[in-house]
Each structure stands twice: as structure tokens, then as C-alpha cells.
Amino acid sequence: MKSFNSILYRRTLNFKSQPFNLTKINKSGFCLNPKRFNTNSCPMTAKTETPQPQQQIEKVKPCSEIPSPPADWFLGHLRLAMKFPGKLHQLQEHLYNNYGDIVRITILGKDQIFLFDPSDIADVFRTNAKYPIRLVVDPWVMYRQERNLPIGIVSFQGEDWKRHRQVLNKMLLPPVIEAYVPRVGQVAKQLVHVIRNSIDNNGKLDKTKDILFNYSTEAVLGVLLGRKLNLLSLDKKPLPELELFIESVVKMFETSEKLLFSLPLWKYFNTSVRKQHYESWDTIFRIATQLMQESGIGTGTKSSKIDPNDFINDGVENFLEHIIHAEDKLSIDEINTTCVEMVAAGVDTTTNALMSTLYHIAQEPEIQERLYNELMEYIKQGKTSDAELESHPLLKNIVTESLRINPVVAANSRSFDYDIVIKGYRVPANSYLILANWVTSRSEKYFKDALKFNPDRHVNKQHHPFAALTFGSGARSCVGKRLALMEIQTALMYLVLNFKIENKGNFPNIISKMLLSPIVDESTKLYFHPRQNQFN
After folding, report:
1. For 319-331, what is the mean pLDDT?
2. DSSP codes joined into one string, 348-409
């Protein structure tokens, strides 16, 4: 079996220091010039020289002067946020259209600073803190603390976050992801087979999203556990509880947003939404733990109750096995929590992104046929492996463009444990910075014909590099980014090679459930017309 050490290659990265405009403010009331930081250490922890007198804090406007909507005396802007249930991306649009590039809202005494200028967003990401701080999801942390579970890499801060991230970082490296492409390719072939057997005589596919959820779950757990779950099998029945697992993931995200943007009574009382949220997490952890135990994760002993043919033996080490064998050890509870977070986030992210991409190419038949023809040209040239086809430039640009117009994450977040200055305003330590990706990635200010689907705009990349960042940037970017993209691109490649995909209606409405999700109804269903030349 190939270990990750045999797959990975060592390379030296020569980082060039990037200038940034965020200004750190020290306790004496002076702004510290970033250029005067000791460059041998990170900006957050570096020793600084005496601040320059001309940069006195009096010249900086207070946070209270940042443009802001009218607020309630106690709830702040919570009432405003509650006017956009399931549509928090539209709250971003409302704030930007009415108040400009920087907007402050306050919810129950906590400032949230929305940034709509990619240059400001770049400055935030380029402030290379030793331990970048992101917003935690309070319901997740509370649940895990009450259940005595590790709070997970999404919520960890400081040394705990660094320790987990160092173990997981290898997933970001291309050689690791490439090793899993054939495994995911087998799942994509099953996806094609299921769609062929599910469409009606006109090519209409019911339950498209359910099928894509099954694909995403099968693919990510295949990588993590090295196990077939038979969610796309026409011959074998999958584990009955897997459907419940997927439903619980969806319910968990839905209730997370409801709890975050409501009166925090749920922190003190077992409200109905909190009960649903906890029940969802209980189900997710229970089934994930069962799958790990059956797959021998942590014990090396696979369950005799599982068909031996359902374990994948392709010579590549499963990702969770790699974590167990890593030099920086994680406990089995930490590995279990990591598995749960990667599956929960990965399944929803991949499904929604793939769904949006299919709608975009369905509405752009010329682009779809161009992709088909270019993939067929690759095949004629002998480039027939899944890894070669999945990495086709146009295929990757189509997915990138889809994620630009319909990002799965409406915003990224950061916080600093010291005061900073943005656009001439003093932002107090521990304020939440909301980096409003939904608005910037769809803005005419940063993309010509912003809502037109044009994958070729990513060939020369003349747009601002921080205007569209659905996976974030820097040390706390999405750890599963490359895996998610590979799963999306592999599925899209197989679907385009086997079907002409059509949408006879409009693009589906988007709803926010922590992640942004297309909502399909009868008028927006996809049609899959089999091509004469099938590719398997």
C-alpha cells in the first residue's frame, strides 16, 4: 500500500512578503506601521519599534462612525437580520446597496463589520497572523461541550487549531488529491448509471439533488474510509441509516442558521430548534462513529459483518488512516470529530456546487458542447485517465465560474485580538469581520457582465484575486477545497461525456442554510439526454 509519504513530494515555497494596509493599534494610542514589524516573525507576534508620532489615533474615526442601518436599543440589528430568513446573502446586498463598501451592524452588543471591497478583504487575509481567528458557530461548540466532544477544527483556535491543521494540511496538496481521482471516478461512473436508469422517456430526472447528495456522500466517505456504501448501487442496498445521515446533515445546517439569527434563548432553554439541532448532531456522530468502527479506523480490524468487496483495495492509504499514522497524533475522538466535520461540510458543499454548475451549463449549451468536444479531443489524444480528464482547463474554469456566480459560502470571516484600522475607521479587537464574498463575486465593479456565465474570464484572471473566494484564503482556507473541487470536476466530466444536460426553466432560487443551496421545483428540473457515444 502506498503511504502518503510516498505520494507527497517536498518542495520549497519562496514566499514574497505582501504589503498590506491594515494598521495595528497599540495600547498607547498610536497606529503601528506594518512595514516596521520585525520581518523575521509573524505580524501578530512580532516586536515593533516605537510608533511614529504622526500616526496618532486621533486621526482615525471611531467604529461608531462606520455606516450602519438604524438599530434597536437592545437587539441592535437582530430584527433586521431576521427579515432575511434563509436569505442572508440578500442581507449582504441590502447592506452594500444602501451603505457602501464598509458597513457595521450590531447583534446583541457584538459588532459585525461587513467588508465589500476586495482590497480590504485582501488586507485582512494577508495579515498573516500566527493563529488566524475565524468566527465560531456557537451552536456547534455548545453541543460538543455538552457532549464532552472535541469542538473540531472549524471552531478550534490557537495551538489546538494549529495542531489539527498541520495534520490535515496534506489534504491540500495536489499529489494527495490526484491519488484519489480513480476512486472518485468509480463513484462518478455509478452516478451516470443511476441517472440513466432514473430518467423518464423525455430525459427528466426527479430527485436530482437526492442523487447528487448520494454521490457526494459516497465519494467523500470512500476517500476517508476506503469503503463502498452502495448509495448509488442498483444491485445492493445501502445501510438503511445513511439516508437518515444525509437528512441529519441538511437539518443540522438549517437549524444552525436559525439559531444564529434568533434571540439566544436557546442558550438557556431547550427550545424546539435547539432540540432538532442536537438530535441532528447526535445522529451524525452516531452513524459516523459506526462507519469508522466497521471500517477498522483506529483498530485495524474491519467488521466481519461488512462484505469484503465493499472495502476499497486500490493501493492508496485511506485519509483517516493517514491521520492515525501522522507524527502529530490526534486522539480517536478528535479523528472522529474531524471525520464528521469533513463529511458534513463536504457533502453539502459538493452537492450544492455541482448542482449549480449543472444548471449553468444546461443554460449555456454552446459552452457545454465545447467542453464535450474538448474532452473528446483529449480522449483521442490518449488522455483517457480520470486524472487527465478531470484536470482539463475548461472543465476547471467552468466550475470556478459557477462558484463565482453561485458561491456555496456567502461570506468568510476573521477576527483580530487587537484593534485595527480599515478605511480610516478604528475596528476594536475581537470584532467580527464579515468578508462578503456573495456581493464581491457578483459585482459589475469587479467583473464585466458579472452575472453572465463566462468561464473564459478565468483564463487570464484579470479580475481582482480576492473578489471571489468561496473557499476562503490563507492558513484557514477550507481544508477540503481540493477534494471538493476534484469531486465536482470528476462528476461533471462524466456527466457531460454521457449526457446532453438541459434546463427548460429558470435558474433555481437560492436559499441560505449556512451554505447557499439551489431549491429545485417542477419548473426547474434538469433533463439528461443520453449521448450516442457513451463514455465509461
Report:
1. 79
2. HHHHHHHHHHHHHHHH-HHHHHHHHHHHHHHHHTT--SHHHHHT-HHHHHHHHHHHHHS-S-
Give long-range contacts, CB 8 A cutoff, 24+ apart: 287-290: 287/241, 287/242, 287/244, 287/245, 287/248, 288/245, 288/336, 288/339, 288/340, 288/343, 289/336, 290/241
Give the pLDDT score at 23: 60
Lowest mean pLDDT among 192-201, 300-309, 344-353, 365-374: 300-309
Kindly tell me if the per-residue pLDDT of 22 is higher than 80. no
Residue 387: exposure state from Cβ atoms within 10 A (0-12, 13-18, ≥19): middle
CA trace torsion 30, 35, 38, 42 (10° rounding): 90
Residue 460 has what pLDDT? 87
Instruction: Give the 3-state secondary structure of 315-358.
Output: CECCHHHHHHHCCCCCCHHHHHHHHHHHHHHHHHHHHHHHHHHH
Could you tell me which of 70, 76, 36 has the C-alpha nearest to residue 55?
Answer: 36
Tell which residue, 20, 19, 255, 299, has the closest CA to residue 143.
Answer: 255
Whether residue 109 contacts residue 74, with contact meaning beta carbons closer than 8 Å, is answered with: no
pTM of the model: 0.89
Q: Cell 459506526 appears where? A: 290
- Residues with Cβ within 8 Å of 510's Cβ and at least 6 positions away in sequence, in order, are 89, 406, 516, 517, 518, 519
H/E stretch holding 413 reads strand 412-414
Whether residue 453 contacts residue 405, with contact meaning beta carbons closer than 8 Å, is answered with: yes
Would you give the distance in Å from CA 399 to the centre of its chain? Answer: 14
Residue 435, pLDDT > 70, answer yes
The per-residue pLDDT for 335 is 86
* Distance in angstroms between the alpha carbons of the first and the last residue of the chain: 26
Summary mean pLDDT of the chain: 86
Please name the residue that has the C-alpha cell 434563548: 265
Write the DSSP assignment of 95-119 as a string of letters: HHHHH-SEEEEEETTEEEEEE--HH
Identify the sign of the CA torsion 23, 26, 30, 33.
negative
Size of the chain in residues: 536
pLDDT band at 327 (very low <50, low <70, confident <90, very high): low
Cell for 219? Answer: 465519494
Is residue 34 scored above 60 in pLDDT? Answer: no
Q: What percent of the chain has pLDDT over 70?
A: 88
Cell numbers 482556507 correspond to 477
* Euclidean distance between CA atoms 405 and 444, whole angstroms: 12
**24 bridge partner residues:** 32, 420
CB distance 500 to 243 below 8 Å: no
Determine the Cα–Cα distance for residues 448 and 454; give it in Å rounded to an integer.
Answer: 10
